[in-house]
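Good morning,

Both structures are done.
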Amino acid sequence: MADNGLSALENVAKAAYWEATIAAFFIPNAWSMVAIIYQAQSNPGQLWDAADEWYEVKQRLVAADKEVTAQLKALSERDWSGEDRDAFDKKLHDYQNQIRLSYAFAVAVHLMLKIMAMLIAMFIMMMWAFATIIFIYAMIILVLWGLMAVPVLNTWATAALSSVRAQATVITGQLYMILKSAAAGLETFGKGAAATLGGLMAIDVTGQMLTGNTAAYADFGQAAVNSLDDVAKGHLALLEQKLTGQFMKGKRLGGADLGAIGKYKFPAAKIPKNARPWFEKIGGVKGAFDVGVPGAEEGTYPAGGSPTVTRPVTGLGEKYGDPFVTRTDALPPS
């Protein structure tokens, strides 16, 4: 799949994290913003490419539908009629209905992925802009610290530093609230899209079964079984990511924010106030290893891309193109 412009935003998201993290060492209330930026690391270009693949699937289904229609019209009743012809027509009509169900699902996935890619792209640009603003404030604070060492400028620099710090704290708090609301909206849309696609998938599989594709449930079940390891690794990485985010926020560890494993819920513990700055900084440094360096070659350690502690586990296993995927994918990898 050809690279698209949205793929560049992966490095923009990484840059936003580094800017915000550096700024947080000078503006302490920025750590909550850092946590949001950390957990929002993504590559919308991959979603866009996936949407394009679903569009290609849709196009193939359209071509198949036209071919079935052509077959139905190819033979007139005068050339062939009777029970065999009726059975033949019914079989093709059932097949056409299966194609159209899959077509509807492919269109829905294509549109959802495109919308999500655009929303994530806009969110990344927002968090980069906000991170840049607080980074500039942090650099001004750093310069004023340096000027305080100059005797003739000490009094002025001290007063200016106090004023800039106060302004930076207020601005950072305001930007955090905006970013928090945007992140919540994006998460809500994502959950709604996932629920919608889940419902459409159930309709598709059921419709396939009712129109004669008796292998639909078996394929669906096999796909679910084959993805269990990836789902488990994804949950493990997400758990580490959420815990790292809690370190950055510096308020509490565990609890409902980490989710649950079945009926088990993680216990919660408040972080003592005098220890919070240390937890925030540890989370920020650890997050830098997770996120990686902007522009680093993909696949190398500096590129990051996943939580560091669980990476040896989450990086194991077969990649895209295992035997089941190769057999069932409408667009097998070239």
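Second structure follows.
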Amino acid sequence: GREHILITELPFQVNKAELLKKIAELVKEKRIEGISDLRDESDRDGMRMVIELKKDAHGEIVLNQLYRMTALQSTFGYNCLAIVAQRPKVLTLKELLEYFIEHRREVVTRRTRYDLRQALSQREIVEGLGMAVTEVDLVVKTIRESRDPEEARGRLMKLPLQGLEDFVRRAGRPESEIEEARAKGDYFLSERQAKAILEMRLSRLTGLEREKLAGEYGELSNLIAYLRSILGDDTLLMKVIQDELQDIRERYGDPRRTEIVEAEGDISIEDLVPDEEVVVTVTHRGYIKRVPLSEYKAQGRGGKGVRAASTRDEDYVAWVFAVNAHAHLLFLTDKGKAFLKRVYEIPEMSRTSPGRPVVNFVGMEPDDRVASILPIREFVDDGYVLTCTRGGRVKRTELKAYESIRQTGIIGVAIRDDDELLTAKIVREDQTVILGTAQGMSIRFAVTDARPMGRDSSGVKGIELREGDRVVGMDVVEDETTQQVLAISVNGYGKRTPLLTLGDDGEPVSERSFKVQNRGGLGVVAMATSERNGELVRLRLVDPSDGLMVITDGGQIIRTRVSEIREAGRNTQGVIVIRLNEGERVVDIEPVSAEDAEDEAEGVEGLEAAEGASAEAPEAVEGSETASEPEASASEGDAPGDDSE
């Protein structure tokens, strides 16, 4: 049931053995994945090279990788040097065609003029012979009475003949030519005509020959008219050139084996890949894969979910996100190194497959770990990459700085020895961002509060962390009137809080809003954490109509709707979002678009199960261990942040 690639012919000057050796090297270096075996089955009947593919390999993608990385598809450039006006000149394809057409115009014109001269000369001879045959008795008498050929030629040239009108009529010429012949009156032979008569055999004086001469005269007259029309009509001249080229193609043409293209270009694999949403997962131990989004089933809150991956011992799915298959992927490691790949290059596998090692796919060091993956559809001029470390440092860099990344990667952000990269986002200058910490604190500040820096800088302070705290999430505010802050804890509790809630006086309600402040401050409470709900595992911004994926360290995932999670104030613990097995912990969440959150008939659990689960969950529990009002006010202060580098 596996696919294979069969090669039966090779480009010009490509050696079969060298090609097989090159393919084997690419497979060994893992630059081409999906090939399981190479065989040369060529014999006296012809060439046959077989490339066996692995079970999960995409045949078209592997073939196009071979086109790009080997001589299986070769390009031959041409130096279009020609002599123009007696000087060498390099021509474009258009200029080459224009000069060739002009050359053909000159050739056909000169040939037509020559043919016209020859036709006129021949018609003159035929006309003279025709007149001699018409007045045969007079012509013979004149010749007999002459002493020698020279005298005979002279006497013939002076002899008035009367049969031109009759000869032209017998030749089938138009009435206008007959009238022209009648108007001439006596007809006198030219020297060439007289000489031709003297050289004529007596057999041409018969009646049959007279008809042949008349017919030949008519044909020559038609040819002369056609040749004159070519010289007088440029459109007809171009038609002659076109007909002759088509005749050459029909007589000498053969099937083209080499494609002529405007310019050399890479094979576009993108055209072979469906434009669809996929889910990309990366495990804690570094295994990556992509799965069509449709394989995950929507369930009610409190459901047990479906398995997102079959993980190895002591491994769990640490990263999951939805992205378009045609997008670029910007990989940023925990040490700040950046790599750029395409989504469709990630191996597509089943939902329960463990995946492939990300170090082989991306090309990073074995001890590196993926910290962030940014889907990029286009490298726009007004876009920036905003990075955030667990130590609370943020940095803004132009998106264009990541457009050209070599295979071995580049420095994406400088990371201090006691820190590591947490995440990165694509932002614009008119936006704000929000950071969340494990102890439930958050801060919202303007993107412009972090000035643009180069890739190799470490950034500035984004939030002031308390002892033992760390940043666990950063997200970008798109619309503060509709977006909500989604907070999920390690024990499966969660809630959503509006970014902005206005009171009757039109002012923001403090306990239900996240106001913009200077970066570097302590921020405000985003979620009350306790032993019951545990630390905050992730803070994200969502729309109530979005779907949501919640993933655990046991490889379990639940897909639900954000609207099914209770809305509550900032200083609350939330409700149960996912029921965990013994010893399980939530490790990540990923919002998905509203249309992807629609129910799939087979995956939806009944409302009774969802209600039963929610019945066991507390109403947005007020944090029993939260700070008193004065302490809360202190934590929510808008003191200017530390802007030190």
